[in-house]
Protein: Phosphomannomutase/phosphoglucomutase
Amino acid sequence: MGDLARIFKAYDVRGVVPDELDEETAEAVGAAFVEVTGADTAVVAHDMRESSVPLAAAFTRGAISRGADVVNAGLGSTDLLYYASGSLALPGVMFTASHNPARYNGMKMCRAGAVPIGSGTGLVEIRDRAAEILRSGALRGAAAGRVSERDLLRGYADHLRTLVDLSGIRPLRVVVDAGNGMGGHTVPVVFEGLPVELTALYFELDGTFPNHEANPIEPDNLRDLQKAVLDVGADIGLAFDGDADRCWVVDERGESVSPSAVTALVAVRELARHPGATVIHNLITSRAVPEIVAEHGGRPVRTRVGHSFIKAEMARTGAVFGGEHSAHYYFKDFWFADSGMLAALHVLAALGGQDRPLSEILADYTRYTASGEINSTVADQAAAVTRVRETFAVRDGVTFDELDGLTVSGPGWWFNLRPSNTEPLLRLNAEAADENQMAAIRDEVLAVVRS
Structure:
C-alpha cells in the first residue's frame, strides 16, 4: 500500500507500480469508488501496460465486493472509456498513466455520461474512503456483484464516424505513430474503409515503450514521424500519446503543427454546424483562437488549464468545442469529453475535402509566434512571480490577470507564468507578433525568473 495522498492528483490517480500503486490499493479504490458514487454498475477499461490488467482486475474485485456489477471493456483508449461511459450511461474507470514512463500506472475516473471526477468532484472522497478501507482491513467482502465482458471498439469507431463527414474526402497518405500505445489498437478500426494509405509506426502494443515515449508534446518523440512523412511523401502525420486521448499533427513538410492551429480549424468546422456557438480555449492557446472564433460568429470563452476546468465550463456554457495547448480536444457531441481521434478525423476531413496541402490550410489559422512551454526549476515560485510582476508593472500599456498563474499582456505580446502543482517548477508560455519580439519577451522573463 502506498501513500494515497501522493498518487491522487487533481484530475486522476497516478503513481509508480508497485511502490506507490499496487493491487491492494486498486482494490480499495474500487470499493471506495462504488461507495462514493453510489454506482450499481461501472465500466472498466485499461491500456497496454503490463500492470494494467492486474490493477483493473483488483479494482473490479473491490467494486463487486460492494455489490456493484462491472462491465469489463478490456483494452481501450481513454476516449473509448468515455464513449463507454456516455453510451452506456455508466460511471467508468480507465487504467492508464497516459504518457508517463512504463513504471507508472493510474486511473482516470468519471461518472455516468463521462462527467469527470476530480479533486473537487469526488476524487478526494474516494481517496479518503480508500485509505480508511485499507487502514481498517475492511477490504474483503462477499463478491455480490457480477462481471461481464463487452467489446466496445467497433461501437466506438462507428460513433466517431457519425460525428465527422468523411464520405467525400480525396485519397490521402497518412502516417500514424502510435508510440506502442493504444492508438495501435484503435486507429486500424476507426480508419477502416477510409480512402487512406496508412503507414503505421509502432502499432505493436508494448507498455515498455521500446521506441520512444508516447508523449508527442516532446519534440524528440516526433522525429520518427516527421522522417516517415517525408520519406513516404505523406499528406499528414498523426502522433498519439499512450492512452490515445491526445493527438499531435505534423504537416506534409514534416513540420510540427501547433495545437492552437488545430483548435482554430476544428472550431471553425464546428461553428459551421452550430452557428453562434460557444468555443472554449485555455489561456495558453494562441490569441489567434479567440480571434478566429469571433470572426466566424462564435463566442470564445477563456479558461484555466486542465481538463476538469474545460469540461466544467463546456457543460456550464453548452460550448460545442474546446481546445488546449497540450493537444486535448473536447466535443459537446462526445459528452463534452476529449478525443484525440475525433480531432484527427476533423483534420483529415478538412484536408481531404479540398486539394491544398495541410501547411497552406493551417496557415489560415496561424497568426503569431509562440515559445512553447518552458520550465524553470525555482525554489520560491511566489517570489519569482512577484519579481516578474514588478518588472513589468512600470511599463505603459501592460495589463495583468491571475485566472491561472500570472498572465501579462502588452502591445502585440503576452506571456503566462504558472507554478506546477506537483514540482518546484514555473511554466512559461509566451506569444508575440513575430519571432524577434517573442524571443525578447521570453528571454527577459526567464532572466528574471532564474535570477
Observations:
- The domain at 369-449 is CATH 3.30.310.50 (TATA-Binding Protein).
- The longest strand covers residues 104-111.
- The mean pLDDT is 96.
